[in-house]
Amino acid sequence: MRGCYDSRMAWLSDFLIRRGTAALALLRTWQGILRFAAQALIAASTPAAYNSATRMVVMKQIYFTAWQILLPFTLFAALLSFVLIQIVVSTAARIGQSDFALEMSMRILVLEILPLVTALFVALRSSSAINTEVALMRIHNEIDALEEAGVDTLRMEFMPRVIGGVVSVLALTAITSVLALVLAYLAVYGFQLWSLPDFTRVMGKVFDAAIMTGIWLKSLAFGLAVTIIPVAEGLATPRMLFMAPISVLRGMVRLFFVLMLIEVASLAFKYI
């Protein structure tokens, strides 16, 4: 009995040590992400950090993140919006609540679905690529070489990517939201301009100042997440080539977790 008890205690001790080590490693990872976020935001708010080189990196990031996918993503968002609006309108008509169809469709689409879909699309399009690029730069010692040459990698390499990603998410969210408004108007009122006053009244009730502030804050949080987490994860990659895909996988999992956390927090703030 004594030997069985000792073996169980040894197993429990080993389990607690492994779980504690994993928890500390996870804590250090999130500390690194938050530290890089603070550094990037401070650098972005410093006017002296901007020059022609940083502006060029920002423009390239916007080009690859938003401009290249603008047409296919807009078509996808239009199709998604059209289908969901038609579902809401037809469902509201069946239950005798047609007067609320427009408001419900806008609350579902513009406030919740489109910002999240935009962030997920950008994450799949650019976040994994950014994570891979930064991880390979670290593995091949390119970051150390740039810093030894006197280059401020935060200001020249990473901060512009964060700004470009944030601008891309905000721009794509704005474009798809306006498109959803147009499609909702056509679905509810058809091709008639004399219904614009009623449409404007309903939109004014849905999108008051507090709601608009919440939308942009959530989109801003999404934009920061899809750029800061991949860069921070890439910077934390061990200097072994086989760790690059593992770093990307971990970064995407953590990014998805943060995006869902932001969305849940937004829902709780608005409806609870």
Describe this structure in words.
The protein has one domain (51-271). With 272 residues, it is mostly helical. The N and C termini lie far apart (54 Å). The protein has helices at residues 2-44, 52-67, 70-94, 101-139, 142-148, 153-189, 196-206, 209-235, 243-271.
Distance between the terminal alpha carbons, to the nearest Å?
54 Å
Order of helices and strands: HHHHHHHHH
Specify the helix fraction band: over 70%
Biggest pleated sheet: none
List how many beta strands DSSP finds.
0
Radius of gyration: 23 Å
The proportion of strand residues reads: under 5%
The general outline is globular
- The low-pLDDT segments are none
Secondary-structure-derived class: mainly alpha
Count of separate DSSP helical elements: 9
- When the domains are counted, the total is 1
State mean pLDDT (0 to 100 scale).
84
